[in-house]
Write a structure and sequence with these properties.
Elements: E1 19-24, E2 27-31, E3 43-50, E4 55-59, E5 64-66, E6 81-84, E7 91-100, E8 115-117, E9 127-132, E10 135-139
Antiparallel strand pairs: 1-2, 2-6, 3-4, 3-7, 4-5, 7-8, 9-10
């Protein structure tokens, strides 16, 4: 038993279920409630489950997800939310949060309900190069979203393309 002058050394309590809300086509905000602890919390860790079944971890240093929890920088102990960037439209995400103190990490909270990013991501402007009098080449930067994009649609409007051959 502990007397009034002793502090029981233990990891933080499990946090309540966080919430996840889409901000735009590639970003969600994860928000959680902090609990009062006898031993001060020194940081938080966030695990994000992706609809394809994979799980990644929020790295506070870059504001994005990484594959290994060991590579994820902890979130500030003052924080009650983070903005996770680099996600993909059309994908469902859910999150859970753990707290740490000088004793160690708590267990993760229950997962949030899933949040679907439904707004299509606007692709970067493509580059168009004239190959011949009857063809053009269209190129763009590949998406870095997770899960990986498996296709693109290219629409060419004839009235927008005019070709002048100044060599003849």
């Amino acid at each position: 038993y502990a007397t009034s002058n002793e502090v029981l050394m233990q990891v933080p309590a499990v946090l309540p279920r966080p919430s996840v809300e889409p901000i735009d086509a590639t970003t969600v905000r994860v928000t959680w409630e902090r609990l009062e602890e006898v031993i001060p919390v020194t940081g938080f860790g966030i695990s994000v489950a992706i609809q394809d079944g994979s799980q990644q971890y929020y790295d506070a240093r870059i504001g994005m997800l990484v594959a290994d929890a060991k590579d994820a920088g902890a979130v500030s102990p003052e924080a009650t939310s983070v903005t996770v960037r680099g996600l993909c439209a059309g994908t469902k995400y859910k999150a859970r949060v753990a707290a740490k103190n000088k004793v160690g990490w708590s267990k993760y909270s229950p997962f949030s309900t899933g949040a679907m990013i439904t707004v299509p991501a606007v692709p970067e402007q493509p580059e168009i190069s004239i190959v011949s009098k009857t063809s053009v080449s269209v190129s763009w930067t590949k998406s870095t979203c997770l899960p990986e994009v498996d296709g693109y649609s290219v629409v060419v409007q004839d009235e927008m393309l005019k070709y002048f051959d100044l060599r003849s």
